[in-house]
Amino acid sequence: SINNKGHNANIALSPDGQTLFIYVNTYEDPGSILVSHLTGEDWSVPEHIKGVINRPYWEGSASLSSDGKTLYFSSERPGGIGGKDLYRATKLEDGTWGKLEILGTTINTVEDEDGPFIHPDGVILHYSSKGHNSMGGYDIFRSDYLDKEWTQPFNLGYPVNTTDDDIYYVVSADGRNGYFSSGRPGGYGDQDLYVVDPGLIGGFNLNLAMIKG
Q1: CA atoms of 52 and 17, how far apart (whole Å)
Q2: Nearest to residue 179, comparing CAs of 166, 188, 165, 190?
Q3: Phi and psi of 166, rounded to 5°?
Q4: CB of 38 within 8 A of CB of 22?
Q5: pLDDT tens, 138-175?
Q6: Which long-range contacts (CB under 8 A, 24 or more apart) does 147-156 make?
Q7: How far is the C-alpha of 34 from the C-alpha of 51, rounded, in Å?
Q8: Stated pTM of the model
Q9: Is residue 66 a contact partner of residue 86, using CB atoms and an 8 Å limit?
């Protein structure tokens, strides 16, 4: 029910595991974010996200906040700062996505930004950029949302970043491990998956609890 003849990729999963965000690319669609819901053991046929997110331009990587109310994503829509930019949208009471907000020039550059990941604490944002002080291609950066502003992003540095593309950085809830894709030499092919310990580079003070029931 999920796959079609185009390019399909899973890009985000809700914290309760019931909602899957999917990237779809076809001849008619340059790239959109769709959503599928788990009912019992079956996933529903994906539908375009309702609201302001999808436009007739490329929309790709996404990350959902732990409360399920904010979706961070990358887009090539007009009106941005340059190339691919990072945005966030808020889930409204009717279930649609609105209140679109570009993350601004602290995060975005005239180059491409992609692969956002908002940590479950709702503060720490990792993403990849070809701008800022990139070592080459995409580098992974971190910025924290403090006092309603994003801190100046810092490059995670070597050995996480290389002169090749390093992207799609995801951090475990406890901050212990970071997982990412890299095109560096010495792998098994083009882009390979790597893990780094600790995952939260640059210090952190996490206070998280998960309630299941």
Answers
A1: 24
A2: 166
A3: -125, 120
A4: no
A5: 999 999 999 999 999 999 999 999 999 999 999 998 89
A6: 149/106, 150/103, 150/104, 150/106, 150/107, 150/125, 151/106, 152/106, 153/106, 153/107, 153/127, 153/129, 154/202, 156/201, 156/202
A7: 12
A8: 0.93
A9: no
